[in-house]
Amino acid sequence: TFDRRPLIAGNWKMNLDHMQGITFLQKLAWTLDDAGHDPARVEVSVFPPFTDLRGVQTLVKGDSLDIVYGAQDLSPEDSGAYTGDISGQFLARLECSYVLVGHSERRTLHRESDELVNRKVHAAFRHGLVPILCVGEGLEIRQAGSHVEHTLAQVRSGVAGLSSEQVATLVIAYEPVWAIGTGEVAGPEDAQEMCSAIRGAIRAELEALFAADTAARIRLLYGGSVKAANAASILRERDVDGVLVGGASLDVAEFASIVRFEE
Ligand code: PEP
User: Fold this and answer.
1) Which positions does UniProt annotate for substrate binding (predicted)?
2) I need a labelling partner for 183 at 20 to 30 A (CA). Which of 117, 161, 176, 222 fits?
3) What is the CATH number of the domain that holds 212?
4) Mean pLDDT value across residues 23-33
């Protein structure tokens, strides 16, 4: 069996400037320390805006905090005439561990296609970053009952061209769009249904491409209106290996109690 250490990831979105971000992170580190948080059991990661990352690096590395961090997006390119874009190379220099790729807000507001998302996944690996590939269906697709098919198609195109080792390292976050920032949380059984379908697809449909243990190693997260009150029941599901938290990651006490879901 493989150790799929639970990952609790906080997506700050466009909140907390570089000063607020540092204050927040210090408080979070103290709160987790006080609560006796054990990083060997549960991994904690935050996703601040780009402009916070240098400050976050200085704090996390300088004070050896047991918190890792990543960016909310990256360019599919490495360098050149791409005004406003951020290279994975720059994120690696700031010692980011992870990078979100294909978040539904990027897919919707910036019209990111599956093809672009796949190029970003490859760009992340080129620079030693672990991509968190975000997938999930909108309300209409859910109501039509084709949510599994839709989400698996996003997964397949997201992982196209990767090696087994890369797929096993990758994190996939299932975030039904209708549950993001809406207070509408999918039930633990919905989270389990999709995570099990994703793991099953990697095990079965992609078995010709990927090594046998890939499906057992890959970490699958649920995201969409996760709070302290519902985190434990979602994280108890067999194929759910963590949560991606938006709104509730901006409150130190709330986020810390999600991290302490085992209690
Ligand atoms: C997210 O942005 O990934 C998210 C899940 O947001 P929220 O928790 O606010 O629904």
Assistant:
1) 11-13, 181, 225, 246-247
2) 117
3) 3.20.20.70
4) 97
103 is a catalytic site residue: yes
Asked if the structure places residue 80 within a domain, the reply is yes
H/E element, 8:
strand 7-11
Is 12 part of any known ligand binding site?
yes
At 120, the amino acid letter reads: K
Q: Whose CA is nearest to atom 5 of ligand 1?
A: 224
Token readout for 51 is: 């402009």
For the beta carbon of residue 187, count every other beta carbon within 10 angstroms. Answer: 12
Task: Indicate whether residue 243 lines ligand 1 (CB < 6 A).
Answer: no
Asked about 150 being catalytic, the answer comes back as no
181 ligand 1 Cβ < 6 A: yes
What is the predicted ipTM?
Answer: 0.96
Domain count, the chain: 1
Q: What is the pLDDT of residues 153-205, one digit of tens each?
A: 999 999 999 998 999 999 999 999 999 888 888 899 999 999 999 999 998 87
* Burial category of 55 from C-beta neighbours within 10 Å (exposed 0-12, middle 13-18, buried 19 and up): middle
Position 203 in a domain:
yes
Tens-place pLDDT, residues 41-98: 999 999 999 999 999 999 999 999 999 999 999 999 999 999 999 999 999 999 999 9
